[in-house]
Structures are given as C-alpha cells and as structure tokens.
Specification:
Layout (H helix, E strand, L loop, with lengths): L65 H16 L3 H11 L4 H16 L1 H9 L11 H16 L4 H15 L2 H14 L4 H8 L6 H9 L3 H13 L7 H9 L5 E4 L7 H5 L3 E2 L6 E3 L9 H5 L2 E3 L2 H12 L11 E4 L6 H13 L2 E6 L2 H11 L7 E5 L5 H4 L4 E7 L14 H4 L2 H21 E11 L8 H9 L4 E4 L1 H8 L8 E2 L2 E3 L2 H4 L5 E7 L2
Parallel strand pairs: 5-6, 5-8, 6-7, 8-9
Antiparallel strand pairs: 1-3, 1-4, 2-3, 9-13, 10-13, 11-12, 12-13
C-alpha cells in the first residue's frame, strides 16, 4: 500500500500520512506534551483540531500519493477533455502501477467525487470567499477530492487534509495549496449530515431536497420520478432509486453461450448471477488476467443488457424461416450486446449483421465479435437509418438499442448526471424515431424488433414507441415483461407494464433498461 494515510471503505486499519500527528485534547501542547509554539511564539495549529497535521509547512507532505493522483487525473480528464471516467480510470491505474488495494481506493475516490459533485460544490460554496466558477478548475477538482475523503470515506481527517494539500503542492502549486488547505479545514467543521442540515435548513421543495441529498440535478430527479410513475411504480420509490444510482455497481460477467465459461471467475471469488444463466457477479480486481476475458469469450456486461438480448433471441416468431434466421443489431457499437447476440445466433444456426455508423466504433464491434466463429456474423459501417431502405424486410429479429440520455446507467457513468440536460433528450427524439422506423422497415412480416434504451425517461421510451406504432397498422406489441421473465432465472422479474418492460437499479440491481418488443404482422 502506498503511503497514503487512508482507511478504505472495507479496511478498519489506518496509517497516518505525511507525518501527521495524533489527535488529542492537549490544548496548546502537541504530541508528547511539546508546545505547538515555534521560536517566534506562533502556534502551528490553534485550539482543538480534528486530527490535522502538527507539522510545520516545511515538513508537510509535498508529494502526490499515487492513488489520489490517479483520482485527480481522472477528474481533470473528465472536466477538461470531456472524457469518460470508466475509460480513463483503468488506464491511469495501470500507468501508475497501483496494487489492488490502492486501485480500489482510487476508484472509490474518483467515482465518489464525480457522483457527489453537486452536493460537494454546494458545501464548498459555503467555504470559499468567491463564486466557485472563479476558481481554477484544477483547484476545484482537488477540493472535490478532499471533500469526498473528509465527508464520505473512512479516511482520518488529518490524512485526508495532509495528502490532498500535498497533492496540490505537487501538481498545482504552493499558492493554490494554501487555499485548498484553508477551505478543506472549513469543510471539516461539520459532518455530511450536519452540512446537509445547514444547506436544507430553509428548504421545503421535495425535488430540491432530494437533488441535494442524493447529488442529482433537479431536472433528473423530476424526470426519474415521472419515469417511475410512467412505468407503473410508485413515485415514492424515488429516494431508493437515487440512492441506488450512488451505490458502487457490482461488475457483471457473461460467458458467451457455447464459447465461454465462468470457471476462472468462480475460482477467484465471483458468485453466480441470480437473474440470468451464464452470468456472474465479479469479486473485483483485474479481470483482464482471466484467459477467457482475454479471448473475449467471457465479457463484462450489465445483466440488464444480457436480459434484453436474450429476450429478443428467444421470443417466438410468427412464422419460422425455411433456412437459418437473419438477425440485425442496428446500433451495435461498442459491441457488448452484439457479441452476446452473435454467440446466440451461432448456437441457433442464425447469422447476425452488426451495424455501426462510426468507423472507430465499428472496429470495436469487430473486436468484440472476434470470439465468435466468423461465419455467424458480419459488420456493416453505415447509418442505421438507411438499412430499412437498403435491406427491406430482410431480417427475422432486429435489436435497435438507440442512442439515449443514459439516465438508466448513472451508477456506472458517474459524470453523466452533470453533463446531460433536458435539451439532450429533446435533441435525441427524432433520431430515436428514425432508427426505430428503419428497424421496422428492415424486419420481415412475422419478425420482431426489440426497441431498447438505457433510460427510463418516457420521452425516450414509451413516447417513441407509441408515436411510431400510431403511424402504422401492421405492428403489434408483444408482452416484453413476459419475454424477460421467460429468459430470467427467477421467472418473475416484475418489470412489465402495459406490454413494455422497465428494469430498475433499486429493484433488479441492473441498469434501468427499457424494452419494447414489436412484431410486424404477417
């Protein structure tokens, strides 16, 4: 373990970092009864402190702890480069050669600071003498990292302060580090519950209270509450749903049917998935060391994605084709669902066309499918909206997993909640409708289309399906809730509502995947 002076979420031990002194009630006396006053008579730390460093400035930490440095670099990449934390973090962990324990600390610190950004900024605004937007962005990211350690992790206060200031000295500068030191000392004046009480003391609006308490933008709180009701759940579920968004998600694994296995995962502490066959819940660590993961026959994939892919592959068609079925994944990048569909197609004697408009993402799809015998799949690089015209009524089963706001995957993409806006949903609507129309045009009479989003928002789910179906008379909805039950191990997910289905993080421990299955009448 690096000399980080931390105590992780599941680690009851602690180690003082940066030469931090002991917490005590010795008035102006330091550790061992020594006076805190220097030769000029000044005190280094006045009055009772919360375990802050007793060291003089010249003796305090001036190096960046590697795990905290990784978290800082992730936040900087997200803010400055519009990067995705789940893509940046693994590369930074490898670059800095963190061991498993430090990697876990860096992950919790990165994701936690990003998830809680709105709430931490509200607290920091009470501790800084200027608007936060006037702070250097790097300084603000360091303050968010320090606040998460102080308020939401089991890190001793003196270590969180000393190490965050040391990080700032090393990578930002001595001047900013003094500001960070002063601000974080103010943050330590209250616990998280106390800060929430202060911030919400005069607030009566339920949406604003939930937004601050659970660190979600207000518009997302309203949208998710509306989504619950739209999909047949009580609006009182909102706090449980927001809390589930903030929980660290368990990594789900899938063994491609007939090609992969989970033996290595089980040997390394994984447990069998409870919702769908061929799945496992990972015990964590570097999954890239598994041979089956390197081959691509075992993959990381949320169980919600596994369920919707299997539901499409298993639903009965109106009329079986004389020869092998043809399947289409209209929006295949980066290839997770396409790989599972290709393996199912290979098992069932079908073939899959995986379409992706972006060339670099089409390459990712090609890589994802490489574990499946190549006679069972092909990759097309092109606009999915053209497939229905170019290949009309050519496919038996079509998956259209449309681009969406991603409101159903906020737990896995911690920065997304602060990036999205209501405008994004409005902008995506026409594309979602055009892609669904193309999928319907491309399916044979008697065939089925699975419309899927990783968002429960009505504007991206039921409204899109209703609009497209209202313009045609040759379509009908199949009970998507039953289709999910048929491929689940429980047989009773309870996800269905008015023939569509919605999975939830707080109910099913999956991403909030929406599924509608549309049959073209024969």
């Amino acid at each position: 373990m690096s000399e980080s002076g931390r105590r992780g979420p599941n680690n009851s031990g602690s180690r003082d970092g940066g030469g931090a002194g002991n917490r005590g009630s010795q008035g102006n006396r330091g550790a061992g009864g020594q006076s805190r006053r220097n030769a000029q008579g000044r005190e280094r730390n006045r009055g009772p402190q919360k375990g802050f460093s007793n060291n003089a400035p010249s003796q305090r930490t001036r190096r960046a702890d590697p795990a905290r440095l990784v978290a800082f670099e992730v936040l900087r990449a997200v803010a400055a480069e519009d990067a995705y934390a789940n893509l940046v973090l693994p590369a930074r962990i490898r670059e800095h050669r963190l061991d498993r324990r430090d990697a876990g600390f860096a992950t919790e610190l990165s994701y936690g600071a990003l998830r809680g950004q709105g709430t931490y900024d509200a607290i920091l605004a009470r501790c800084v003498d200027r608007p936060l937007e006037q702070l250097d962005p790097a300084v603000l990211d360091a303050l968010r990292i320090g606040s998460h350690q102080l308020l939401s992790m089991r890190v001793p206060a003196h270590a969180a302060l000393d190490q965050t200031v040391g990080l700032a000295r090393a990578v930002i500068g001595a001047g900013p580090s003094a500001l960070i030191n002063a601000v974080l000392r103010k943050v330590t004046a209250h616990s998280m519950d106390e800060w929430l009480g202060i911030l919400l003391e005069q607030e009566t609006d339920e949406t604003k209270i939930a937004a601050l308490r659970h660190a979600h933008p207000e518009w997302i709180v309203r949208a998710l509450r509306q989504s619950l009701v739209n999909h047949g759940r009580p609006k009182t579920d909102i706090d449980d749903l927001l809390e589930a968004d903030n929980a660290a998600p368990v990594v789900n694994l899938v063994a491609l049917p007939g090609l992969g296995d989970l033996e290595e995962a089980f040997e390394n502490g994984a447990t069998a998935g409870e919702l769908v066959e061929g799945s496992a819940l990972s015990a964590g660590g570097d999954l890239g060391r598994f041979e089956s993961v390197r081959r691509g026959t075992t993959r990381v994939q949320d169980v919600g994605s596994q369920l919707v892919a299997r539901a499409l592959a298993s639903v009965e068609l109106g009329e079986s084709p004389a020869h092998g079925e043809r399947w289409l994944d209209l929006c295949a990048g980066p290839g997770g669902k396409a790989a599972l569909l290709a393996a199912l197609a290979h098992r069932d004697g079908a073939t899959l066309l995986a379409n992706e408009p972006a060339p670099h993402r089409a390459k990712l799809v090609q890589q994802a499918l490489s574990a499946v015998p190549d006679e069972s799949w092909t990759v097309r690089t092109g606009d999915g909206r053209d497939v229905g015209t170019e290949q009309p009524e050519a496919f038996d089963r079509v998956l259209v997993d449309v681009p969406c706001s991603g409101l159903g995957a906020l737990r896995r993409r911690p920065e997304s909640r602060w990036r999205r806006s209501p405008k994004d949903i409005g902008d995506l609507g026409p594309l979602q409708r055009e892609l669904l129309k193309s999928a319907i045009d491309s399916v044979k009479p008697g065939g089925v289309v699975a419309y899927v989003t990783c968002s429960p928002h009505p504007a991206e789910t039921t409204a899109v399906v209703s609009d497209v179906l209202s313009k045609r008379e040759d379509l009908e909805l199949i009970d998507a809730g039953k289709a999910l039950d048929d491929v689940s191990l429980t047989g009773n997910l309870g996800a269905g509502h008015e023939l569509t289905a919605q999975l939830w993080p707080h109910v099913h421990q999956t991403d909030a995947m929406f599924l509608a299955i549309i049959r073209k009448k024969a």
